[in-house]
Each structure stands twice: as C-alpha cells, then as structure tokens.
Write a structure and sequence with these properties.
The chain is an alpha+beta fold and 116 residues long. It has two helices and seven strands, in the order H-H-E-E-E-E-E-E-E. Strand 5 and strand 6 form a beta hairpin.
Length: 116
C-alpha cells in the first residue's frame, strides 16, 4: 500500500474501527472529485462540498447483491469527511468511477474482491 493509500485507509479505519474492517473490503477511487460536484455511486447520490478522495467500503462482501456498504468522501486538504450509507456497490455500470483495492480484511473472502 502506498503512503497516500495508507493515509486514506487510516482515516476510514478511524471511523469504522478494526472490528468492522476485519470482514470488509475497502476500495479507493483512482480519481479525486472536485468540490461542488454531485456524484452517483451505486444507489447513493452524494453532494461533494470540497475536493475529495472517494472510498467505497463493502461491509458484507460475502452477501449477495444489495447489502450494507458505505461511501466516504475524504477532504483532500483537511480532515473533514462525509459518510453515506448505502446498499449497492459502485461497480454496477461500465464507465463509472474507477476504484482500486485498498484493504481486504482477514475474514473477507478472496472471491469477493472486485477486479478492475
């Protein structure tokens, strides 16, 4: 994991905690989102107030189709964040925002990791 990836992951870890992350799979976007943008990710519509990194946390990767997950907007130049609870992953349609694997909890199944 790169230094920036570690920093992003630690910010998500501070919110979710290790007990949740042991079963989770976390992805970070390859792109930043500019402040004032409205983005659609899975079933979540998110107003982004500042330049942000986008993180998707699959909280139940062993579950089928719609299940508990969360999106995080992490402020690039500061410590603010937004969390949007959701039920659908961002991988539903081609041409969406590209994500990369950031973390796979030790109890999360390998088969559940989304490939690029």
């Amino acid at each position: 994991m790169t230094e920036s990836g570690r920093s992003i992951f630690e910010r998500v870890r501070a919110v979710l905690g290790d007990a949740v992350l042991v079963n989770a799979i976390v992805y970070a976007s390859h792109e930043t989102v500019h402040g004032g943008t409205k983005i659609q990710l899975g079933d979540a519509l998110i107003d982004v107030p500042w330049d942000a990194w986008v993180v998707f946390a699959d909280l139940e990767p062993q579950a089928n189709w719609g299940h508990r997950c969360a999106y995080f907007m992490l402020q690039c130049e500061g410590n603010e964040f937004l969390q949007k609870d959701a039920h659908m992953p961002p991988f539903l349609k081609p041409g969406g925002m590209p994500f990369r694997l950031l973390w796979k909890g030790s109890e999360a199944p390998e088969w559940a990791v989304a490939s690029p």
